[in-house]
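Re: folding output
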Amino acid sequence: SGATSRTNHGAMSALVASASSVARPVAPARRGPDPSRARGSPSSTPPGDTASRCVVARPSASRRGDAQVARFWKGLGQPAKRGADEGASSKSSSKAGALTPFPKDYAQMVSQCQKALQAGLDDGLGLMEIQFPPGGLETAPGDVEGNMESNLTVQHLRGICAQFERNKTAKTTRVFFPDPIEAKLARTGTNSSPDGVRAPSNSETRAWFAPNNWPGPVDFLESPSFLSVSGLDKVLNKRVSTWNKAKDDDSAFVVAYPVSNVSELTCTRELYEGESGRGAGARPIVVCNGELERTRTNYYPPFWNAGEMAPLREFVKVFEQIYFIHNFKGSNPAVLFRCYPGPWQVMRRRRDDSLEVVWTGEEYPGVQKVALEILPKHP
């Protein structure tokens, strides 16, 4: 089946989870899905660049409850609840200082992502990053087999994209998958192979972006070839920019997990550069689970594909992280969390199954700074 053609990048993603600065010149592959986790109540501690401590209770329910996900998808089509302060500017609400609680499960995570996405759209953000562990809210990239990570990412992304349906722009929101196979799987799900044998159950995927389930266009960044992956298409002047796939009536772009090779992130950058040329008419781009931290932290060594990596490192700095979860493992685990427009939070996971906020800040601290500077100060 199509699903078995995906490559496994899981082990490679584990580097960022440990916040190591050691470069490993190995291109990652694809990923996949499964649900549920913990949460608490908002803290009253105001955000700032000083350390803060507040404890949020967290239920110890099953991390991957299929029943919870089923209940969530059953209610996906219901209209969003409208709060009393819905008309307030999201930028001003950030200054109010309310801390978003860490999600208790994937249903709550998707709901938080939807609100963060709408806040980013309202504030006119051009490049938005959504990053979360798809195989369990306490896991790190690479903990789950690659196909499953991809499948789960697509499932949760579909829920996040429901916000475009609520704001009436779904029909003109173009969703890009890395390549034609991934786009086909998102539209049609896993199909039987020619001999009638289905793929293993743990690699099957549903048609989350089928025409009868998603009203907008579904596309792919590029069809990989020796020329595109090696970069020779640029040398030979045969490269066709991904931005050429954009249509005049598109209102937004969503890029799903461009992590298999550097070329996929290059395609995303081409899309951004094309939009930048439109000036005030530029349309927003949302990247989901692109693992951009690897590019920010020199996961790829300077000598590897240096001509492409230098502009990509500058490109990833432009992103606003509107929803971000990064887990730190070990005997004293922690998590870096943000839900736009709220502040960044560093939380310690305590043995009583609670989360303690030990640091907040308005600026993105970076995974390495959290691991090497902030966490040692807050054991």
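--- second protein (sequence, then structure) ---
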Amino acid sequence: SLFPALSTAFPTVFKAEDFTYALFLWARLIFDTRCITVKFPGSRDVTCLVPWADMCNHHANAQVSKPLLDDDAKHLVFSSIASIPKGAQVYLNYGPLDNTQLLLYYGYAVEKNDYETIGVLLEGPDEEDDPLASMKALMMAHCNLPTQHMLRGQETSFSPRLLATLRILLLEKTHLEAAAAQGIEPEVRAINAENEHAVLAALTGVVDSSLEAFSTSIEEDEELLLDEQSIRGFLRCVIIYRRGLKRILLDTRSIIEEMTRNLVASAGLGK
């Protein structure tokens, strides 16, 4: 509705032939795919277009720091933070971007991306089906727990906040009664064995359903990536991206299995 509403309301300012949706989309995509962050005076970061500087590719270990605006000289300062051999490519660090963002905005994916994540959106308490919904909502608010969480690769444990959220969401009345004597600190420890098994089962369901959604296995992706002649360009980046997601899910499964073994071996948990 913005187009042609702007031209209709302000025809002399927004001329219809210059302010079309197609041109707006072009301008937005130019900005999103070529913008960089510049440090302004007062340590204020501003995202803007900088011709020439936007030709620098991204690297997590870039040799050049974030550009700084010299307000007196009216120019940008690019400072090297590492030695740059003659003829070497100069990189900027676009920020802590996972492969979803890199693929969406810049059209490529990184083989080993330390910032790779998978979002997990949990359903909040349902007052129609859960008699404890109101109490769970209060507990989550008290602990400042969100329903949106992240899974990361190469981790050896889950975020305490993710576990705390699931422990509260999966609470049963019997769990509350069993834990009443020792108190409930969902970010610190399990509420009891039954509740913790439910948490791990829920996480297993997330992993299994996510892996089943892919049309290939991680082994098949590895096999495809060995074919450097046929699998090139954007297709190669997409396969790298989905393989990275599968690695996170498989790492998550390993954590679940380890926690399950520890839970079974623990004596007196929740008693």
